[in-house]
Amino acid sequence: MRVLLVDDEEQLVSTLAERLELRGIHAGWATGGEEALERVKSETFDLAVLDVKMPKISGIELKKRLQVLCPAMKFIFLTGHGSEEDFTAGAAEAGSDFYLIKPVKIEALLEKMNEVMRHPGKSI
């Protein structure tokens, strides 16, 4: 599995990528939407883990742009803002049933990644 982590908190994404790599999962990362869009032009990813609130390009907008470039890519959203109910409504609007609340534990992320990848026919 190849995962792209996108969050404007560099320490968070670099640490998550390192921890995923230790578990045998290729994990690339970017600190913003523009950087993520550039990475997918030269690398292939099965899954993107996107922070909802980022400067310039939100996670929801980034998902829409990534879907155009990589139609088979799956998505998980991360949020550290607002209530779970507020995020659930926003995620439903964006077409995603998969999300985690920050701070995220690596075990929870791995479990959610496996759940997403088990839904091959579902548009996430």
Task: Give a quick set of tags describing it.
globular; 5 helices; 124 residues; five-stranded parallel sheet; Rossmann fold; alpha/beta; 46% helix; 5 strands
Short characterization:
The chain is an alpha/beta fold.
- Secondary-structure class: alpha/beta
Largest sheet: 5 strands, parallel
Low-confidence stretches: none
Q: Write the CATH architecture name.
A: 3-Layer(aba) Sandwich
- Our estimate of the beta-strand percent is 15-25%
Shape, please? globular
CATH-defined topology: Rossmann fold
Name of the CATH superfamily: Response regulator
Summed up, the helix count is: 5
Strand arrangement in the largest pleated sheet? 2-1-3-4-5
N-to-C order of helices and strands:
EHEHEHEHEH
Mean pLDDT: 87
* Estimated helix fraction: 40-55%
The tally of beta strands, per DSSP, is 5
Explain the overall architecture.
The structure is a single chain. This protein is α/β, with parallel strands linked by helices. The chain has one domain (2-105): Rossmann fold (3-Layer(aba) Sandwich). It has 5 helices and 5 strands; from the N terminus they run βαβαβαβαβα. The chain has helices spanning 10-22, 33-42, 59-69, 84-94, 106-117, and strands at 2-6, 26-30, 47-51, 74-79, 99-101. Strands 2-1-3-4-5 form a 5-stranded parallel sheet, with helices on both faces. α2 packs parallel to α3 (59-69). The chain is globular. It starts with a strand and ends in a 7-residue tail after the last helix.
Topology:
Layout: E1 2-6, H1 10-22, E2 26-30, H2 33-42, E3 47-51, H3 59-69, E4 74-79, H4 84-94, E5 99-101, H5 106-117
Parallel strand pairs: 1-2, 1-3, 3-4, 4-5
